């Protein structure tokens, strides 16, 4: 009997170590991708020049400094942040919805954000005192957040089962798509072009004003996600089991939705609609590391950041000198991974 | 006898007057046959008095030929009312009727109602060959209108501005019965274009300065013209459009590429009104407002290493010149900015002034071109 426990302990420790190693590997891969992202660009800056521009920006030429500090670095950091936010949101979403197909975009959150952006772009409507570029950001954020609260309200009226939530979410998707359709219908050609570009998702709005905001949002949300890791793992075993462990399910679901909406709203507000990260990021993480949320949450963060960083590299490499909207590239990377995932699942 | 003679004289004069009037009206009623820019031969029984505009912004084009353009528009798309900014407001003040012109659609070609066009019973529909409204590819609209007996002519200032502007204006002159105005404009246009073409042709070794153009469009990152669109203007005046590498007509350049290219000239285009983000320029805008917005664009850290910025070759222009016969003014401006040694004497606002005085029903007043002053 004692031997058995030791065996189990040993097995657990091995699994634990394996997962830590995997997490480290993901972290290193993300870091490498970030460095490549920093090193790649249409101008012939070599890596040593980049490093010098990063660490002693005043000793290099203005052009090099601006390329590194105003172009490459903001894009590269924004890619990591957006990927991390969306993937973490997706991982939590899949658990609280008990649905492997859930992502921040399933429940109408991004549809609501799109409508908010369309309001700003097409008819220039936002909160009083908010002007210029910030209208789109503020609107996207408010609508994404509002949609989550609405969702929460609707589902609390009729019991908060995940199925009900998904159905309400789908209703919201169609509702906001219709609203956005009306905006597109009345838009000028110029506004329509702006809006279409916005929906394609892009890192080129990244700058030193919005990166800290998104970073703060992420850093003030992620610890709470990680702190609820064991509750989420328990919920993954089923609502009844979770309840028997003493997990306050309604509260967990509400707080989780709140985090999801903050993370999604933040990412969407600054980078537009970027599909598939929120769906594929968590799946890659879970395939590698399993369903234990103490590991799958950080793994999701890393895998999302990694995919987004790779997409960022690709988005500037497809046509030298031009930038392909990263939302397009992300889906192009995401779809094959996703299909492979589904095929792999069938085999098992 | 005298009386009799008088009588005959009168009768003769009467007959002559009658014949004259008869022949005159008959001449006017002679069917007009034209070939439009996509090569379709179109015949209309008489000059059109009620036309459909497939793109509302072509109101400006009509204003070059007709003193009261609002009176002949039977229906149009709503785009000019929205993107025309203060220019639209001015048109509205001068021709209040334009607010009541029925809409055939809002903006995109998907929103156009063929039924509405037919119900308006126009004499003629004027569409752009490649436009935001119904165009040469809108086969179903063309088929339906032709079946309803509504003739369509295609004009074009957008797909091939330098090939099609003159034929488009000649065509409009004929179908609107304003040939004299159209010919005068064409003569004016050709003279100015030939000056630029001729000067460039004389250069044996023309250096082509690199031009970086940004279309400032508010909430999303600025776009740059690729091979078509305003990129064609840059190439036409002997510049080297660094956006030519873009795969599409318009796209986003990697700022790092722009810095690496070191453009000699920076041109921003925009349509923002005072108080809006972007390049504030156009009708009823004041110079200080344009200067402030242009200075803001030039002050972004990301463009600070560009030679064009360092040497203060920073220019701005109204965006909607690209889809209009007024493109001549934009051509002169870009020529002047790109090759000051050849075209330094050109005055784009002077061209507009002449167009205002000689042609336009409603003069363009405000800032349409700007050079950043430091």
What do you see in this structure?
The complex is a heterodimer of chains A (348) and B (374). Chain A has 14 helices and no strands. Chain A has 348 residues and is mostly helical. In chain A, helix 4 (109-123) packs parallel to helix 11 (249-271). The model of chain A has no long low-confidence stretch (mean pLDDT 86). By secondary structure, chain B is α/β, with parallel strands linked by helices. Chain B has a five-stranded parallel β-sheet with strand order 5-4-3-6-7. In chain B, helix 8 packs antiparallel against helix 9, helix 9 runs parallel beside helix 14 (327-338) and helix 14 packs antiparallel against helix 16. Chain B folds into two domains: 31-177, Rossmann fold; 204-371, 3-Layer(aba) Sandwich (Rossmann fold), CATH 3.40.50.1980. The chains are: A mainly alpha (348), B alpha/beta (374).
